[in-house]
Amino acid sequence: MDQLVFPVAVVGSVATLLMVVGMLYLVWISMGDDRHAPALGEAAGTEPPEIDGDAESDAPELAEGEAA
């Protein structure tokens, strides 16, 4: 049983190294892709959402000494 420790450690290390290299490759190829970049301002063609009501008036009143 002790004879398998070294080969299993080598296989695990190689697999981990391949996964790290694969993830770095995926990040590298996506660096120039603007597919997931945020569209800011009027370039997106959308307007900012409107907020109904006053945020302070919608909050419940708390008595002194009470925690929220």
Description:
- This protein is mainly alpha-helical.
- The chain contains 2 helices and no strands.
- The N and C termini lie far apart (60 Å).
- The relative contact order is 0.05.
- The model has no long low-confidence stretch (mean pLDDT 79).
Biggest sheet architecture = none
Q: How many individual helices?
A: 2
Structural class: mainly alpha
**Portion in helices:** 40-55%
Mean pLDDT rating = 79
Transmembrane segments: 6-28
Region (Disordered): 38-68
Keywords: Membrane, Transmembrane, Transmembrane helix
Biased composition (Acidic residues): 49-68
Could you give a short description of this structure?
The chain has 68 residues and is mainly α.
Per-chain topology:
Elements: H1 5-30, H2 55-58
For this entry, give a set of tags.
single chain; 68 residues; mainly alpha; 2 helices; transmembrane helix
